């Protein structure tokens, strides 16, 4: 270690001196603990159980407690603790469910003292009472906690949390009879050792397992917990209900938490996986750690401050088989690499910018922000001279740039969320409805997107080729017309060549269908192929026209060409010799005799556009054969990505829900989850709770679907005896009456139930509504004036 700083700390008559140092262990460590005088540390693991002396320059091995030719599973330790009252007393939690105590004062090589085999599964944690020498507490994977008196062979108390596995137990430092226990289901319980029958307090602390807890050494009521949800929370137990006062968000599951001595708001943490570093946080500044130790190469499994009153020495063990002593002055400080500016938009579109006061104090045009009711009052944090890193407390200046209320209005978002239809109708109706909503809010681009989605995924899929060919009469403008162009734009001479005899190959039937409102050509191949009816270069010649021009409609002069066609002999500059063909009239007369042409079409000998709908359209069958059903999926995916990048996750999520499986496979799961969480967060900020819940229900992401199925508790009291109901049904265990009885019809309510929060009586929604039309008193006869919102 090159960056070593020597530190000396005076503790009463003793002095702690040392530097950053480490030693290699024989095996990975699971836990460490330090003795009362801070001179020795014990390291325990599956294959290691040793005591090291902490010298000024190095660790020196003093004692190996794994003795015997074949050490038993009693030496395989999940946790170890060194008694703070008796320097010769150790306790370990074995992976086979045994709690073992060790007496270092024994003259023999084997220091094992007592075995407690009452747990049925792995013991996760052991803890000595801070002031009582003979009291030991254990927590096991079997869900039980046991209190042992070391003067007796068996446990004196058993505590059942009636929950899942116990992950940590800790005696309160200030309260003699209290201990805390954490569980895998996110629950924290507080117990009184004198009452093993029931816990004193229980609350949900985390979403997922709570792996660790630690009582504050100075503040009696503060309890820190860490869990798999990557959070460290500080709870105030002095109140009637546990109150969360601080929350620190880390980047990985929290395995250990330890309050820093002599620093009220500092806490050290290490992670269970992924992250190998040790962090020291100021809980008042939860977004960036105050200090960080980066020496370990694998997961840190145990951390402990060397002395109860020394904040500068930290010991740690790891799965990389090393034991470290960290000096606080050698820690890296992430604040040095952090961006000193902050930028954020408010819900109203206002922009807040924070930076070091020294960077913007020279701006003479800057006016002080006095705040208004849309923003909280901001303040500068005063310097604390007692803190080691004073610059962490440096003050910042905040600038707020307010936008015009009208321009920054989010009413369109709220109206769109309330009016959008996402399910319960056919796809075409959903797209049309949402397009109408967007159009009404003058969001024309979004409205056009919904219209295109309807055409792509609904219209083409519901219109067959036969229907398209036989329903193009008057009033059929709702059908989609593909690749259409006006006959006016056809070069002279092209009309007579619409049907030519094949020069080679098999003949192919082509129909020219002409009626008063439309003209169709059914052609299964538009490309130049051998045996095609019309050679490509003859049809196009030297006409320099854009493809879009061919597909334009002319609505301005519908009757301009009602006169009879007179086609010239040569329509294009000659490239090769061409053979004369029959005139248009003869050709059409032959066509009239064809069995493929109806009587109405035979009477029409001139190409006369009527009502400006004279179109030549390629049939739907050609389109469908050319383009598979998922042809537009990449384009739709890019459209959704565009909207999301523009910040309009509302449109992205709404289209995702409406299209469902048609587009879901085109977008990766992580991106979809990000969109959903962003949209749900916005809905909840605007207090659109019902719409948020609907989006969660309609989501196809597993992580989103479970959002409204967790941390929801419904407490129900019986309307007769007013006692709490059990979770086993709607029959009260005490009075044996059904709680969901309608006060009007006196039948069991099996559907929607409504009740008065004042008297607890209620019934069918329709019955209660009808009753309140004539009376405001409770229908149950209790005399209460019921009010329903």
Short recap of the structure:
This protein is α+β, with helices and mostly antiparallel strands and 789 residues long.
Task: Walk me through what this model shows.
The protein is globular. The longest helix has 19 residues, at 444-462. The protein is an alpha+beta fold and 789 residues long. The two termini are 70 Å apart. Strand 28 and strand 29 form a beta hairpin. The protein contains 17 helices and 39 strands. Strands 3-30-29-28 form a four-stranded antiparallel beta sheet, with no helix packed on it.
Radius of gyration: 40 Å
Main sheet: strand order:
3-30-29-28
| Inertia-based shape | globular
Q: Largest beta sheet, briefly? A: 4 strands, antiparallel
Number of distinct helices? 17
Structural class by helix and strand composition: alpha+beta
Enzyme class: transferase
Pathway: Protein modification; protein ubiquitination
Main location: membrane
EC number: 2.3.2.27
Task: Itemize the secondary structure elements and their pairings.
Blueprint: E1 7-11, E2 14-18, E3 21-24, E4 31-34, E5 40-44, E6 49-54, E7 59-64, E8 77-82, E9 89-94, E10 99-103, E11 112-116, E12 123-128, E13 135-140, E14 144-149, E15 155-160, E16 166-171, E17 178-183, E18 187-192, E19 201-204, E20 210-215, E21 222-227, E22 231-236, E23 243-249, E24 254-259, E25 266-271, E26 278-282, E27 291-293, E28 300-307, E29 310-318, E30 322-327, E31 342-345, E32 351-356, H1 357-360, E33 396-401, H2 411-419, H3 427-440, H4 444-462, H5 465-470, E34 485-486, E35 512-514, E36 519-521, H6 536-540, H7 547-550, H8 584-592, H9 599-603, E37 615-617, H10 620-626, H11 633-645, H12 649-659, H13 661-664, H14 669-685, H15 689-698, H16 702-705, E38 753-755, E39 762-764, H17 765-772
Parallel strand pairs: 36-37
Antiparallel strand pairs: 1-2, 3-30, 4-5, 5-6, 6-7, 8-9, 9-10, 10-11, 12-13, 13-14, 14-15, 16-17, 17-18, 18-19, 20-21, 21-22, 22-23, 24-25, 25-26, 26-27, 28-29, 29-30, 31-32, 32-33, 34-37, 35-36, 38-39
């Amino acid at each position: 270690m090159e960056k070593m700083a020597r530190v000396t700390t005076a503790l009463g008559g003793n002095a702690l001196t040392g530097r950053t140092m480490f030693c290699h262990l024989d095996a990975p460590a699971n836990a460490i603990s330090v003795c009362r005088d801070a001179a020795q540390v014990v390291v325990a693991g599956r294959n290691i159980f040793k005591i090291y002396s902490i010298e000024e320059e190095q660790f020196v091995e003093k004692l190996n407690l794994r003795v015997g030719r074949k050490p038993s599973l009693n030496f395989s330790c999940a946790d170890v603790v060194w008694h703070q009252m008796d320097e010769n007393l150790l306790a370990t939690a074995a992976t086979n469910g045994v709690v073992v105590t060790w007496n270092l004062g024994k003259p023999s090589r084997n220091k094992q003292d007592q075995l407690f085999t009452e747990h049925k599964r792995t013991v996760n944690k052991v803890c000595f009472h801070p002031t009582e020498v003979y009291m030991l507490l254990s927590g096991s994977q079997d869900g039980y906690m046991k209190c042992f008196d070391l003067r007796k062979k068996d446990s004196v108390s058993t505590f059942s949390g009636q929950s899942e596995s116990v992950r940590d137990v800790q005696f309160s430092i200030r309260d003699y009879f209290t201990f805390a226990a954490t569980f895998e289901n996110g629950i924290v319980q507080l117990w009184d050792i004198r009452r093993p029958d029931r816990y004193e307090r229980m609350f949900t602390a985390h979403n997922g397992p709570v792996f660790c807890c630690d009582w504050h050494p100075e503040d009696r009521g503060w309890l820190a917990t860490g869990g798999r949800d990557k959070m460290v929370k500080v709870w105030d137990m002095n109140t009637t209900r546990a109150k969360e006062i601080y929350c620190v968000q880390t980047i990985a599951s929290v395995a250990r938490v330890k309050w820093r001595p002599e620093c009220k708001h500092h806490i050290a943490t290490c992670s269970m996986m992924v992250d190998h570093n040790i962090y020291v946080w100021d809980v008042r500044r939860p977004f960036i750690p105050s200090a960080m130790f980066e020496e370990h190469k694998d997961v840190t499994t145990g951390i402990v401050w060397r002395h109860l009153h020394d904040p500068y020495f930290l010991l740690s063990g790891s799965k990389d088989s090393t034991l470290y002593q960290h000096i606080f002055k050698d820690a890296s400080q992430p604040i040095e690499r952090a961006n000193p500016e902050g930028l954020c938009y408010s819900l109203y579109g206002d922009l807040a910018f924070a930076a070091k006061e020294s960077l913007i104090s020279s701006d003479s045009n800057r006016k002080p922000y006095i705040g208004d009711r849309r923003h909280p009052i901001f303040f500068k944090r005063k310097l604390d001279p007692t803190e080691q890193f004073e610059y962490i407390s440096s003050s910042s200046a905040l600038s707020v740039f307010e936008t015009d209320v009208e321009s920054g209005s989010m009413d369109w978002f709220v109206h769109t969320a309330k009016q959008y239809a996402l399910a319960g109708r056919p796809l075409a109706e959903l797209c049309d409805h949402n397009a109408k909503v967007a159009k009404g809010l003058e969001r024309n681009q979004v409205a056009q997107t919904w219209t295109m989605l309807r055409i792509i995924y609904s219209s083409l899929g519901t219109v067959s080729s036969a229907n398209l060919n036989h329903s193009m009469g008057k009033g059929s403008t709702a059908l989609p017309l593909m690749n259409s162009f006006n006959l006016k734009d056809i070069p002279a001479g092209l009309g007579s060549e619409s049907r030519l005899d094949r020069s080679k190959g098999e003949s192919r039937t082509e129909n020219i269908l002409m009626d008063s409102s439309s003209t169709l050509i059914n052609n299964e191949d538009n490309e130049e192929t051998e045996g095609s009816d019309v050679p490509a270069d003859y049809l196009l010649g030297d006409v320099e026209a854009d493809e879009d021009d061919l597909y334009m409609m002319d609505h301005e002069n519908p009757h301009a060409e009602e006169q009879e066609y007179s086609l010239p002999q040569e329509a294009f500059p000659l490239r090769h010799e061409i053979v004369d063909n029959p005139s248009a009239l003869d050709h059409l007369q032959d066509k009239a005799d064809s069995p493929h042409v109806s009587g109405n079409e035979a009477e029409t000998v001139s190409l006369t556009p009527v009502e400006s709908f004279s179109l030549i359209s390629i049939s739907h069958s050609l389109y469908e054969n050319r383009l598979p059903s998922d042809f537009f999926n990449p384009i739709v995916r890019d459209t959704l990505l565009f909207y999301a990048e523009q910040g309009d996750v509302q449109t992205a999520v709404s289209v995702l829900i409406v299209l469902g499986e048609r587009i879901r496979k085109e977008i990766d799961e992580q991106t979809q989850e990000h969109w959903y969480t962003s949209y749900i967060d916005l809905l909840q900020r605007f207090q659109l709770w019902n719409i948020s819940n609907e989006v969660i229900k309609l989501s196809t992401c597993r992580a989103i679907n479970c959002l409204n199925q967790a941390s929801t508790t419904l407490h129900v009291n019986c309307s007769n005896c007013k006692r709490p109901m059990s979770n086993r049904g709607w029959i009260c265990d005490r009075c044996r009456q059904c709680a969901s009885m309608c006060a009007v019809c006196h039948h069991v309510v099996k559907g929607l139930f409504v009740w008065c929060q004042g008297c607890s009586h209620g019934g069918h929604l329709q019955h209660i509504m009808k009753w309140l039309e004539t009376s405001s008193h409770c229908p149950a006869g209790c005399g209460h004036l019921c009010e329903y919102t």
